[in-house]
Amino acid sequence: MSILLALGLAALGLSALFERHVERRMADDLTTLVDRVVAELDRGDDGRLQVIDPPDDPRFDKPLSGLYWQVSGEPAGVIDRSRSLWDAELALPADELSESVRHNHRIRGPGGAELLAVERRVMLSQRLGGGAVRAVVAQDVSALAAATAAFTGDLLPFLGVIALVLVAASAAQVAVGLAPLKAVRTRLAAIRTGAAERLGTAFPDEVRPLAAEVDALLDQRAQQIEAARTRAGDLAHGFKTPLQVLAGGVNRLRAKGETAIAADLAAIGETMRRHVERELARSRQTTSTNTARAKLAAVADQVIGVVRRTPRGSRLGWSNDVPAELAARILPEDLAEILGNLVENAARHAEDEVCVRGAAEGDTVVLQVVDDGPGIPAERVAEALKRGGRLDLTGSGTGLGLAIAADLAEAWGGAVTLGPTAPGAMTAVVRLPRAADPASG
Question: What residues does the Histidine kinase domain cover (predicted)?
Fold first, then answer.
């Protein structure tokens, strides 16, 4: 129980130390980012104070990704912030900040998520308008909790092995440590049966004092027994002469004819003699002392069925030319998200028809979403795939669809590209790892 308690406390302590270490590393990383935000603070082409070249971590561009930056004035409010904040703001605590001194906070972010925030107060130069701004970079601490939980999960089996080793070592230690006491018990049993007289000194240093004390006790008991034996012998000899005298008196009474009295005295004398011999006899005795899989055709049918029921989709012609057996190594819901964004985009720009095609190229599957829309100029393809990039500002889109599709594809080891870009044809291409045949697994 003590070993388990100690290892349990060790697990809690190590998990806490790991969490503190990871939090310090996270704070150091956030400090680097907040320094970058401060360094890029300048006036833009429109004269507005902003972060010209924000940190290039893609999470800053993904809405509610859990990683955010913000620059706010005193008391002007928010000056600039990352796209990941969307329409939210980081509520910073009232704090007396020294210039360029880093402060760490735990604050609530979008959706009530707990964030670790690193903040710096910076005095602006006169060129930037003077005054002070507060720059902060914050990250969701759920990743910290997940890392701590993973560390604890990896630690517990190791501590379990240590517990087994320590328990086995403890059992061996107890067995070896108590072995001399077993020898003491054996020697005491031999003394009790008369096979031995003393324990002796053939014991470890820790047990030898105990054996010496027991032997001293046995010596004292032997001396007491010897003294008792001597006293019993003296007592017996002291009774012997009076008994002989009594026996002589009995004989004289018989000679005088006092047989009744002689018989009574003889019986008493015999009883006394037997008691003495019994005690003498007693005094002479020696006392001893990776399984994700999605069917492309089925997912394409599902997505087309949904988009076809929209007002725009109902006016278009649809075709699904994906082989039924073609499968990619991706979750069906993620594939539906990718295709949904691409098919919705195609439906928005198509003139008459949208076609989904699929084929296998070695270990890769290739999906094509083809529409007969106007296409995209080659120089603007990269802008279309950028998060928030919108080439058609007349529609209701957010500019996130193609970027989200690209992010999901990259997360599964794939990619999204656009082309060809000639007028009259537009193709969105999704490449994903091919799923293994279940029969071969």
Answer: 234-436
